[in-house]
Amino acid sequence: MKHVLLVGQSVMVAANGKMASPWRARPPPITKLTLGVLIFVAFWILLAYNSPSYTLLDDDDNDALGAVGGQITANGDVRMTMENRWRGRDGPGTNCSKRLSPSPCEEIHVAIVCSGFEQSRDIVPLIKSSLFYTNNPVHFHFISDEDARLVLGTLFRTWQIPGVRVSYYPAEGLQRLVAWFPNRHEFKPSQVAKLLLASVLPQELEKVIALNIDLTFAADIAELWWLFEELAAQDRAIGLVESQSDLYAGRPWATLGGGYDTGVMLMRLNELRRLSWMQVWKTVVEKITDTSGAVLRALTDQDIINAVIKDYPYLHMTLPCTWNLQLSKQTISEVCFSKLSELKILHWTSPRKQNIQLNNINFFRSLHTTFLEYNGNLLRQRLPSTCSSSNSAGYPGPGLHRTGTLDQTANKGSCSKFREASSLTYRTHLFYMNYKWPEPKAFDVALVAQLSMDRLHVLEALCLRWKGPMSLALFVSDSELQQFLKFANESKVISDRTNIAIHVVYKADGFHPVNFLRNVALNEVRQPYVFLSDIDFLPRYGMYNDIRATLAEFEPENSRKALIVPAFEILNYRTRDFPKSKSALIRMMDQEQVFSFHYHVWPQGHAPTDFKRWRTSTAPYRVKWAASFEPYVVVPSNVTRYDMRFVGFGWNKVSHIMELNAQLYDFYVLPHTFIIHMPHAPSPDVAKYHLKWSYRKCMSTLKMEFLRDLMRKYGASAMRYKNLKLD
Fold first, then answer.
1. Which of 42, 462, 587, 672 is deepest in the core (most CB within 10 A)?
2. What is the pTM of this model?
3. Max CA pair span of the chain
4. Domain 428-721, what fold?
5. For residues 429 and 88, what is the distance between their CA atoms, to the nearest angstrom?
6. What CATH class does 96-381 carry?
7. Segment 9-44, tens digit of pLDDT
């Protein structure tokens, strides 16, 4: 191979620069000897190009590079050292990976450590970009805590990406593997999780790509997977890219040369097990403890792997730097590539992530933003089901599930669009914003609602008026979600709260799945009670504490009691004019500035609340259910879920209250609390209902089906609905 490189260099020199001019002045005659030499050289170039096995660096080369990498100046500047290391060589497999790749049915295994709600959100661009470029089956192995398993489990189950499998391995179980670790109080087992992969992952699994979550792919992950062939050819156990900063300058105990970054790492697990990997890095940690105990508490798996490489340099192979372009303020990654098209993976190593200033940063940000806003539903079409199960054999792990294709068997015929909309699987990302589980409180109550971007303006006002926990389902597209995130992060009212659970449900074509959204929010409540509201209603200041006090005083003897919060509407958009007390509300009612909700278009919806009695009430009073009643209620959080056949506009709340009535719930009106509706433009589904006869006809059909199901389910208690007049 060295001869090939030398010949290539001589040809390049002859083709340009000062050495080219004599040839242009007088071309030499081509003799038989010259022709023979050229044919011989061409033969060996062709042979080297098509060889299925290739070697760019032998052991002597690696040792020499390690020696160059050790030349660090007194002030820790490694820029010139790193430039010398990268220039003149592309690294193993750079050219070969362009023409060699695994079978399109070979399953690629990826291991990622992911903990908490924030990391579960930040990992999405990595998932999207890694799957976007490849058609190979991918099996993700997540080392995760309980929160991440909840989020990722729901996300992948509802995403339904063909050719993708997911396994979960509890991070809580890592403690037993590092119980010997001479840790300080800051140490967490997740800091060294990558070191434990050979022990945690199934013993049948021979190799895995270990990734950080802050990556954005710009190439097919199958090309990276193919580099395992080179790793095996060199008999190395780990493949990784050199550090592109001076992170390890001044810490000669820690690294070989300038060090390595473990954000992208190839691991031959079978080889690591053969080498007793756990014992290897344990010995190194104990050595560091003896010499540099003061830094032990800050050690991560990257620090330990670098220390291992220093003591055992034959374990690793250096990967092409384009497979881990490290972007931080101190980076010198620009010497890694000559064209942006050469890049494979962006690694956002800076604590500021995308908010840094670098050469080409606009291009890097644009690539990352593309995947933030990319419609993830399109990945459901990423892989034709041509690969047999034998080509992607599974490695059973804790929590393994296989995602499949979308169910295309929705009922056809009459009202098929309604039925299809109610049976769709919507991609769902729970707890998208920062959230902390509240401490358990007696009679605690969470506000439950759903919203889309056209109701976003109400959220800040709602947060000011409801200080208790909230569970909100947000219905948005991928691009709209980034607008919401920007709005929420810039709002101090929202960003300062950690008791608001935002559950993202991604849009699909069709109707607004209002009851599906309500159920998503309702399912994630951990409080004993819920206030089932709509996002465009603002509660009276202090209502959270009032409801808790009422529940404590008026504790339901059983779970079949629904406490009604009276609903009103105001024609003034200014929230500062909203009444702050019951007495102020009554005065505004007398002045005809406030009215009972929908009194002029749908009075039967709230008439059973008996607003006349409410004006003078001082204690909860019981009311009877009536047809079309749809109050906003406080109920136990284990309440029956909403019927998801009702999408868009019509009967979505009415059906729920009717089912509570069939379950023999008693309805009580709260005397001192109230909510006020914020005026807004009608939703598109409202317009469809009023303008399209076919819409109203299908709604009547769904109502009749619901009533039949109700009578079949609840028997005698639901027979009163048999002759119910449908509005």
1. 462
2. 0.81
3. 115
4. Spore Coat Polysaccharide Biosynthesis Protein SpsA; Chain A (3.90.550)
5. 46
6. alpha beta
7. 333 333 333 333 333 333 445 455 554 555 555 545
